[in-house]
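User: Fold both of these, please.

Assistant: Here is the first one.
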Amino acid sequence: MKKLLLMLGAVALFNCSSDDNIIQNPPVDQTRYNPDLTIVENLDNGVAVLDITAELGVEALYGIEYGGGYIFHVDEADGKLMVATDYSSIGQTSWGDHFDLTNSAEIGAGRDNTQQIVDGNLADNSGVPNGLEFGSDDYAFKIVWDLEYAGYDDWFVPSKGAMEAIFDNVHMRGMGNFDEAQFYWTSTKEGYQPYVMTFNPNTFNGDCFLGTCFASNAVVIVRTF
């Protein structure tokens, strides 16, 4: 019996000593870039965009579906993403009122451009030179400005520069959902003429060109975050 008690005591002592010697691994910081995970998994874990691009480069993010659309631009200063998706399922949409406006072609200007066009439609444009009242809110920029889609409500129509970046960084990589048979509005305008674009590489090779406000075209929607 004594031998049995001594053996049990030794085993208990050994187990206690063994437990004391176990090295506890520190908790994993999910917000650090993990090469074993996908880019989307890293983003979902809260890894900073610029930490990902520092490891993989900016182009590694292009065309990835995230945040309601396809990533086409990364702001390398603050890590903000811009995503785009086709919204031509609503059919051809009108420009709205016809009035004089010249705004920005820069990537990232689409939100301000869209708001300028919506605000311009609030005025009575029937009496301005070459002006025309569309007569309803059923036009591309108002539809997008009020849109709730894929769980987000901060959509706008992309600028000329953004549309060309979508073509280069997503469509020409064989990614995205853009229709080569459509003509699309941009939110950039010179005077009375808006810039439009097609994703067909055989037509202007992805460059925007001046169109007319009297046409009806499809829309791409964009958000930034």
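And the second sequence with its predicted structure:
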Amino acid sequence: MEMASATSVFAPGLSIIGDIEATSDIRIEGDICGNVVTKKKVIVGVSGKVKGDIHASEICVMGEVLGDLYIQGLARFTAEATMKGTVCSEKIGIEAGADVELTVSKFNKGGATERSAKSQKGNDPNTPRRPVEELMKMD
């Protein structure tokens, strides 16, 4: 995996409603209600909460995620992680103690999975995204 030249950090206490697209690694310690897209790595820290879909090359979840993950490489969940949704990745690692309710599928390097291609509405099939309004209603 190519290293990013920088890391975008969303600090504790920061709340964002809206989609995030970056060319860098992303570390989330605050609250995000929206989709997160990068070709680099995403870290959801212990204080981080994401309500939305995440597209990345790699992810490490230590906080909370409510949404679907589309990960080209490793999707890792630490013992502190809470996750509810679908994980589509090349590899997955779940530590004992993680609170996860998942549907898991293998990442198709040629593009999106069949499910994700059907769920998107006019977007690039490799990055289906749910509208923020729909994400705000999720529990």
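Residues 7-117 form one domain.
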